[in-house]
Write a structure and sequence with these properties.
The chain is of the alpha/beta class. The chain has helices at 23-31, 47-59, 78-87, 116-128; strands spanning 16-18, 37-42, 68-73, 96-101, 104-110. It has one domain (16-128): Glutaredoxin. The chain has a 5-stranded mixed beta sheet, with helices on both faces. Mean pLDDT is 89; it is low at 1-6.
């Protein structure tokens, strides 16, 4: 398996970026015009969420040019989590992934359905429909 670098600036694995400010939501919309953006909403108090994060980390095989990935600690950044739900008109769940394409949610899922395979499948389906 080809592991990506560890992001020493954020303490997050690979090419994951922290989502911790409201301004980043507009950045995500802009980034999603060029390539898919995935938001992972994680509750640090939830066992299912920890399991989903572990599976993502274990199976991660995306290269940075394929997608941008944002990690949202919704306990520490509740206002940002609420703004994501409102902006993208998706009911809040935890854990949850949202795939943003062209400024809108192309796909979202939660709990045990979260994984690298589902992200890759949804991105491929989105590309085929273009």
């Amino acid at each position: 398996m080809n592991r990506l670098f560890n992001n020493a600036d954020t303490g997050l694995p690979f090419n994951w970026q922290n989502l911790n400010s409201l301004e980043q939501i507009d950045e995500i919309k802009k980034l999603s015009e060029d390539k898919p953006v995935v938001i992972f909403k994680h509750s640090t108090r939830c066992g299912v969420s920890h399991m989903a994060q572990h599976q993502l980390e274990r199976d991660w095989n995306f290269q940075p040019e394929e997608l941008d990935f944002f990690y949202l600690d919704l306990i520490r950044h509740r206002p940002v989590s609420n703004a994501v739900a409102e902006t993208f008109e998706v009911r809040h769940q935890s854990p949850q992934i949202l795939i943003i394409k062209n400024g809108e949610v192309a796909f979202h899922t939660s709990h045990h359905r979260i994984g690298v395979e589902i992200i890759r499948k949804q991105i491929a389906e989105e590309e085929e429909s273009i």
